[in-house]
Amino acid sequence: MTEIVSSSSPAFVRPTAARRDIGIKRRYAAERRFRAYGMVAIMTGLFFLFVLLWTVISNGYTAFQQTTITLPIEFAEKVIDPKNERAANPSKLMTANYPLLVRDALVKALGIDPKNRAEVKKATEMVSASARMQLRDIVIANPSVIGTTVNVSLLAEGNIDSANKGQIDLAVEESKRKVNDQQIGWMKTLTDSGAMTKDFNTGIFTFGASSRPEAAGIGVAALGSLYMMLIVLVLALPIGVAASIYLEEFAPKNRLTDLIEVNINNLAAVPSIVYGLLGLSIFINFAGMPRSAALVGGLVLTLMTLPTIIIATRAALKAVPPSIRSAALGLGASKMQTIFHHVLPLAMPGVLTGTIIGLAHALGETAPLLLIGMVAFVVDFPGSPMEPSTALPVQIYMWANEAERAFVERTSGAIIILLIFLVVMNLGAILLRRRFERRW
Amino acid sequence: MNMMSEAAVEKALDQKMNAVPFKMIGKDVSVYYGEKRALFDVNLNVRENTVTALIGPSGCGKSTFLRTLNRMNDTIDNCRVTGKITLDEEDIYDPAIDVVELRARVGMVFQKPNPFPKSIYENVSYGPKIHGLARSKADFDQIVEQSLQKAGLWNEVKDRLHEPGTGLSGGQQQRLCIARAVAVSPEVILMDEPCSALDPIATAKVEELIHELRTNFTIVIVTHSMQQAARVSQRTAMFHLGNLVEENDTDKMFTNPDDQRTQDYIMGRFG
Amino acid sequence: MNMMSEAAVEKALDQKMNAVPFKMIGKDVSVYYGEKRALFDVNLNVRENTVTALIGPSGCGKSTFLRTLNRMNDTIDNCRVTGKITLDEEDIYDPAIDVVELRARVGMVFQKPNPFPKSIYENVSYGPKIHGLARSKADFDQIVEQSLQKAGLWNEVKDRLHEPGTGLSGGQQQRLCIARAVAVSPEVILMDEPCSALDPIATAKVEELIHELRTNFTIVIVTHSMQQAARVSQRTAMFHLGNLVEENDTDKMFTNPDDQRTQDYIMGRFG
Amino acid sequence: GVAIARDQIQVAGSSTVLPYAKIVAETFGETFPDFKTPIVESGGTGGGLKEFCKGVGPETIDIANASRKIKDSELETCKAAGVTEIQEVKIGYDGIVFATDAGNAELKLVPKDLYLALAAEIVVDGKLVANPYKKWSEVNKDLPDVEIAAYIPGEKHGTREVFEEKILAEGCKEAGAKDVIKGLIADEKAAAKACVAVRKDGLAVDIDGDYTETLARIASNKNGIGVFGLAFFENNADKLKVATVNGIVPSVETIASGEYPVSRPLFFYVKKAHLGVIPGLKEYVEFFLDDQMIGPDSPLAAYGLVSAPDAEREEGRKAFSAGNML
Amino acid sequence: MNTSLILLLIMIVGFAAYLAGRSRAIATSNGKLSVLHSLPGYHGTYAAICAIIPAVIVLAVWAIAAPAYIDSGLRNALPETVLSQGAATAELALGQVKSVANGLNLLDDAELAALNNGSANLRDVLAAKGVPLAGEGEAYMIKSAAQFNQMTATSRVLMAVVVLLIAAAGAVFALRGISAPFRARNQVERVMLWTLMLASSIAILTTIGIVGSMLSEAIRFFNSVSPASFFFGTVWDPRFAAAGSEATQGQFGLLPLLAGTLYIAFVAMLFAVPIGLFAAIYMSEYARPAVRSIAKPLLEILAGIPTIVYGFFALVTVGPFLRDISAQMNGLITGNYVSFIQAQSVLTAGIVMGIMLIPFVSSLSDDIITQVPRALRDGSLGLGATRSETIKKVVLPAALPGIVGALLLTASRAVGETMIVVLAAGVAARMQLNPFEAMTTVTVKIVNQLTGDLEFNSPQTLVAFALGITLFCITLCLNIYALYIVRKYREQYE
Ligand SMILES: Nc1ncnc2c1ncn2[C@@H]1O[C@H](COP(=O)(O)OP(=O)(O)OP(=O)(O)O)[C@@H](O)[C@H]1O
Ligand SMILES: Nc1ncnc2c1ncn2[C@@H]1O[C@H](COP(=O)(O)OP(=O)(O)OP(=O)(O)O)[C@@H](O)[C@H]1O
Ligand SMILES: [Mg+2]
Ligand SMILES: [Mg+2]
Ligand SMILES: O=P([O-])([O-])[O-]
């Protein structure tokens, strides 16, 4: 090529250079393929995410609605406190026969013959058994309602709720469904009269566990998860970062530190249930911490999350170019200062990714909680991490195994809540990570 | 191409510089880094088989201009180029243009040596490999040896070709980067201060290389050494604060520049 | 120190160089990178308030020797130093020594500019901050301005102090690193080719800075430019293949060196 | 550790008993506002008993739910750890039903057919051979002409043992395989085991999860037959078609009367030493045993528990208040 | 004074020491901080450390030792009749005494007097105060409880005094030591280093804990099952002896489980690694920042979806899909519409697990790739390399150490996963090579043997512990091997 330039060639006329073949077509094809692979990869990932979310959301959005039956409840004194001894013995109000009030109201609303016991039973079954608690709370909060009639919105029983949302196939023969034809008729009556409505289901957020789907919520589980995640975040992040810094920056490179490195990688491969065994024997049996407590769960999940954070952090620390370290050291910064002022901030995106992934894992994990008693039926809200509680994935797991139809949608509903919890939890880390990201 | 004797070519070039065709033409080139404008309507043409030296105080835009010539600016996020630059009459900023081919034709040696974290051998054979310039191991060996020799590094590294390139001294790294660029035999070679970390002897080697390359290639070199510019280039362009102050035959530039600022700069205390 | 006039100091220094006390003493210094030996029993002393230039061909061990003086070698995994180096009679390789303090006293400008990926201001103020050289914002502002001015960078960056230091041109980065090192006011400043990416005017600024610093500080500078060595240094040491060939008064070195290799190198084709 | 007396009952154990225990615990908490609602853990009978047998004291659990009787070896471990006083309480029966997708024709099963379809080895011409049947119709031409696909409880489940005992062993006998096997294997235990070994070629699938999983598998393979608890089946009767065994349709009545052959008793075990120490424990057990809870007309029965006969329940209550121990 | 209050006080002392130390250091410097060896902040921190750390250590020791001491005293003081009934009874009695003690604190003097002279029933009195008491409570308990309360109170006061004194002493000691040449920074950094070391020792303690919590039960398992038949057995059938063998013991062959574990993890990696890596490359090298900042967190959601959801996804969607599509394919080719992929298969489990693992690869690798300095990319692009060539030949090799770490983490997660396998690949332990058929993994068996109806002290349950330890050792060996490989590879470059 460059067939040249001689003095005789007229100025500004260029000889057409015979271009070398550098396989440009093929390489561009490869480039396009490579890029396409990347796109396809992201699309695949997002596709699966979308499918999963779609499955969950389409199954679960109805969980955020709940059928209620609003009835005029007559708080009859002769039912609640026939002997008028509530002044002397307030606990009488606790144990009064509240279901009777519901029954009477229903019988009136539906116009059933009170003597027809079978029908009355079927009718009362339409209202959740938790109505007892609901009415009791009203009376305890305000004893003066006794003797008056008040409109109260009662939860419909789970199967009625499901039927009302169309989740029970009403076309199959009557004996094969949990809602019989008579109840369907009543449902229609109540709906027409405006007594039966579908409302936003606040209960799913605020209730504790219950064997009745309509009264079951993720309140306790969410609180338990919150406690545990706080513990994990407060312990795992600093410990993980500290350990990584030591191993990556300070530890002498010898057999021992190799062993520790391998060991940490290995801890990541330990099945999560084994961490449950560890928690059971160390925290509960040895240290005497309480069973079923979020504290123990948090500690177990911390140990489980640590390897993830350490591995991610070490990888990120490794990727910081040595010239940055030299620059700081050369100015008379101590190693500690160099690391904390320059290296760690540059490695921060990796650290935060490790944290995000580790926490996500911890948030969704059930198996280790099984052995420390957190896969349990817990009704009362834990006042502290020392008290019994469950966790969101546990609640999901338990609901997934329930027989009642109404739990199917609630399972998906709980998954949606868990994912929202996850996104909220990670949001801070994600924003922080974006701030630390920079190219140089 | 070797039909003419080297001396003859040189003579022809020196005498009829103005008759030499333009290899690259820069017209009204402006560069912005975000808000900041780094180059102001630069009109600078690079002649074929000629060494063009870019001089000017630090931060005046020499590297920036150099980078526009093979579109290395594209890799800087907030960098924007306006104006027109052609290579063999093709607009290199035309969306239809192929950047890869462009960069294969217009090679670059960067200001800060940046060897790959690979062995010395791989550093040099990288370009030929991706461009398919060699097939057999023997071909590669030959290219690597020749390129390292041209860059004056062969003797120092021939026993450690498979050690990492990052373990070399600063000057060695710089020469490695030169060898790497030369190995691809581009049509135009852009060199951003190729001798800044080199001792006089190594510098001489590189200058010799430039001299040699010039017969076949077009070279643009950024340098801070007036002597070097005078020694190796036929044309010199002087930048100041993002403006092209003057472009002229090197001889003229160093003896009788048109612009006062050039005069001041060149006569500046020392070189 | 300031009791004497500057000129007097200079004269005294020039005339009685041999009477000037040693700031740092290197005795039988050898350095190994893994198996490879990069320095062979170097005996080189650095005199107080003197500029010592290290010259020699690329790869001869200048940077390596420089790095031993403030133990930056410690950060290279497979690097091993033998022999003894003292600073003010203290052995700096003594395990009891505080490396951090040592490096605060013996500052360094690296061969490849390596600004922190932070703002220009933070780059310069970092050293003073960790060493407690300033307290108020005003103090810092002053130090930053002074240091940048000394490095000849102030005018170019004064409007963009809070932009990233990595967005500067090569030469600007180099000056930034000089400013950063000067801001700490160490007793000894090691400069590894501080002017390699600088144009003559900026170079002059830095040389002026060196000249100025010399009254209060001890300076060791690696340079490839014989002229520069001649201009700025009082003592010059010549390395070759890891050996210290000769160390002498600069004047003598450049006029009448003791060693043939020095002669050859200096008289080498050009500088 | 620091032992502080608990004010909340802790229960652990079988996942089969869990739904019943949950209902009782919840109702107990509502009915006795003075006591906190008990914590009911799930973790399997074995896991529950293991915790139960850790010792006595407020840091150990009070009740272990079990879907089978406690084994002798477990009892020994318990006693060695100081848990000497254990009260056994039977709460009722769990019916085990076979069901297939609701869209299928009704299935009439007999143990013999199930044995022939699912056994690992069957007798052909007086010799034991690997089960050759691939389709139900090959086993019995009255059965549908579809590939055998049975989702049976995995070995971790107590239900599996019941299935083996009441179906496979029975079928083995009916098919006349038992005698052949006895002739081949001298050891009686080993022979009995050979009778109930299930084929492992993928046609019989063990389910270690819960019935939800079995349901999902049937949903994705409409020809599959699954094993369910009666309660679970009743809640999903619209999606499933139950199979008769020996011509009997499983229901609370047929199971209670013993007509339907496949069921198992459910229990829980109480630490007597904790009675009266853990507040509400005694009341909880009594509440559980009340007809209000486990009688034929109770919420547990409504959920699907098969109540024990009246006399048996009465006996259970008496045994508990008498403090009878194992 | 309770422990957290004391802790708070120590922190306050520490904070005060910090402030004092700082200002004292500043005062010492006479306005020229550079005469100080260390910044005033370090002097302050040093003072705070001196105040806090010894005090907290003493506090911790005290808080653990004192109750144990008091308990043992109390236990010994229990009546002979109680003690003779064995340790368990004594423990229960002790617990009761503590409940009583708890209740006594709530009583007023009159009620106390009534109790002491026996005119009031202990249980009723306490019940009225909301303290439930098991049983009637015996007379000795009141005395014991009172003693307990008194000892506890004394211990608390003593502890508070001692600990706070130590804190103050520490602070004074540190403050007096402040001088210009004092190397406070070095001291503080030494403490920091110890803290870092302590943090990394947690990993080791965890390992010890894991091995410790499984070892004794694993040994019990090996006492009844021969290690040879466990490690080299090819049949997993815990309830059935091998045909024709004399032993009545079931067969605990590890190999089918191990094969399944490795196979499924391998398939999952085969799925997750290319997708994850390409996604990472696309995000870090090609995508616009806006796309990246959305896609990355979205993909990370995949890591947080509970595994049971994946399990059901496999069971309900992926498994049947693969089965049906294989039937279709088979039909198109051979005319015989029989599926060759089972609904539950290694493939199903691998794919679904792979989906979960995508973000492990993509996010971590993306961070590492982004960290590769631009100069390297420029070097390659400047030679005329395409972006993909640059990535493949320069960026990825430079990022390799970090990426390998991410991949190891991913593989680890794949080995440790349970729920997906249970639902996607089933629980049948089979030894075979066909990815379209069911297999199961070690972790599945660990979980199932631990949580079932099985007798808890039979080999069938104990085998879970043996499996746990074995898996631990095997993955350890694999990790050692991986480290060895990585080292060997890295030597060429770094
Ligand atoms: N990290 C390292 N690992 C291995 N060898 C090295 C390393 N750094 C430098 N060397 C080798 O040591 C010798 C001396 O290197 P040094 O950097 O001191 O040279 P120099 O005199 O500064 O050269 P230059 O002027 O090119 O910067 C060279 O041969 C070099 O290749
Ligand atoms: N990435 C960037 N972002 C913002 N500004 C930049 C960037 N790169 C360079 N600049 C600015 O553009 C101007 C020209 O820079 P350039 O690198 O072209 O200078 P130069 O002539 O090569 O100088 P030197 O001789 O010091 O290398 C300088 O003011 C510099 O600060
Ligand atoms: Mg430049
Ligand atoms: Mg050097
Ligand atoms: O959980 P189970 O013990 O009843 O199988």
From TrEMBL, chain A:
Domain called ABC transmembrane type-1: residue spans: 222-428
Gene Ontology molecular function, alphabetical: phosphate transmembrane transporter activity
Keyword Glycoprotein among record annotations: no
Gene Ontology CC: plasma membrane
Subcellular locations according to the entry: Cell inner membrane; Cell membrane
TM regions (residue ranges): 36-57, 226-247, 267-287, 293-317, 338-363, 413-432
Protein name from the UniProt record: Phosphate transport system permease protein PstA
Organism: Rhizobium giardinii
TrEMBL record, chains B, C:
Protein origin, superkingdom: Bacteria
Molecular function as annotated in GO: ATP binding; ATP hydrolysis activity; phosphate transmembrane transporter activity
GO BP of this protein: phosphate ion transmembrane transport
UniProt keyword Transport, yes or no: yes
Keywords assigned by UniProt, alphabetized: ATP-binding, Nucleotide-binding, Phosphate transport, Transport
SUPFAM superfamilies assigned: P-loop containing nucleoside triphosphate hydrolases (SSF52540)
Keyword hit for Transport: yes
Pfam family, one: ABC_tran
GO cellular component term of the entry, any: membrane
UniProt domain ABC transporter: residue ranges: 24-266
UniProt xrefs under SMART domains: AAA
NCBIfam families: 3a0107s01c2
Protein family membership: Belongs to the ABC transporter superfamily.
Protein name, per record: Phosphate transport system ATP-binding protein
TrEMBL record, chain E:
Any one GO CC term of the record: plasma membrane
Family annotation (Pfam families): BPD_transp_1, DUF3708
GO molecular function: phosphate transmembrane transporter activity
Alphabetized UniProt keyword annotations: Cell inner membrane, Cell membrane, Membrane, Phosphate transport, Transmembrane, Transmembrane helix, Transport
InterPro entries, A to Z: MetI-like (IPR000515), MetI-like_sf (IPR035906), Phosphate_PstC (IPR011864), PstC_N (IPR022182)
Protein localization: Cell inner membrane; Cell membrane
Record's keyword annotation contains Cell inner membrane: yes
Top-rank taxon: Bacteria
Residues in ABC transmembrane type-1 domain copies: 258-482
Any one GO biological process: phosphate ion transport
Major place of residence: membrane
Described purpose of this protein according to its UniProt entry: Part of the binding-protein-dependent transport system for phosphate; probably responsible for the translocation of the substrate across the membrane.
NCBIfam families given in the database record: phosphate_pstC
Homology family: Belongs to the binding-protein-dependent transport system permease family. CysTW subfamily.
The protein's name in its UniProt record: Phosphate transport system permease protein
Organism: Rhizobium giardinii
